[in-house]
Design a protein that fits this description.
The protein has 216 residues and is an alpha/beta fold. It has a single domain, classed as 3-Layer(aba) Sandwich (Rossmann fold), CATH 3.40.50.300. It is built from five helices and seven strands, in the order ββαββαβαβαβα. Strands 1-3-4-2-5-6-7 form a seven-stranded mixed beta sheet, with helices on both faces. The longest helix is centred in the middle third of the chain and has 17 residues. It is globular, with a radius of gyration of 16 Å.
């Protein structure tokens, strides 16, 4: 499935995350947690606000550790989340936090090692349903953002672009910068969610996307 094939049903799925817990860290397939739960992966440049977004999405401060020092996440971190689809329907899934890419001070050997196990996960995990690529809304996509997005599309991995830190901009500039990100990535659709971890902007839209995945 590529970007153009992703659709959202007209009837929105009202879901919420009711619980979440850290399960495992991994750099090899044999370290992945067992089970057949769907997976939603989150990735982006170091210091893009990934941990803050995960905590905001789950409404659990401290679930994913935030740091002022980029490049701290060096493994695939798996979290088991419970989603409430309705009063009777509860569904679990794995949220997978991937190491940040594009951090210049990371040693070359580490970058190669990280790229290998991240690529292995993205290409070989049968449970992966969606890769959420985070890009700082305040800046045009960098080369690493563009190459990562193109790689996901070329490898037929469903991707949802999320423009983080939207609270830093006015509404007019949000629209302007989202358009710049879309152009910079060469996207053929308007499939970008502007997100603010501080104000909750974009949370319901992202939950809608996850809800569609959990119904598959």
């Amino acid at each position: 499935m590529n970007e153009e094939k992703m659709t959202i049903n007209e009837e929105k799925i009202m879901i919420n995350i009711t619980s979440g817990q850290y399960v495992a860290s991994a750099v090899r397939i044999d370290q992945y947690p067992e089970g057949q739960l769907h997976e939603v992966a989150f990735m982006g440049r170091s210091n893009v606000g990934k941990s803050s977004l995960i905590n905001s999405l789950c409404r659990r401060n401290g679930l994913a550790r935030t740091s002022g020092s980029p490049g701290k996440t060096q493994t695939l971190n798996f979290y088991r989340l419970m989603a409430k689809m309705s009063e009777e329907d509860r569904r679990e899934f794995f949220l997978v936090d991937l190491p940040g890419y594009g951090y210049a001070r990371t040693g070359k050997s580490n970058r190669i090692q990280w790229a290998k196990f991240i690529e292995e996960y993205l290409l070989k995990s049968p449970r992966l349903q969606l890769a959420c690529q985070l890009i700082d809304i305040r800046h045009a996509p960098m080369e690493s953002d563009i190459s990562t997005y193109q790689w996901l599309i070329e490898n037929d991995i469903p991707v949802q672009v999320i423009a983080t830190k939207a609270d830093k901009l006015t509404r007019m500039n949000i629209n302007k910068n989202v358009a710049a990100i879309r152009k910079g990535l060469g996207m053929k659709s308007n499939n970008i969610i502007a997100y603010s971890s501080e104000k909750g902007l974009g949370r319901s839209e992202l939950l809608d996307v996850i809800g569609e995945i959990l119904l598959k």
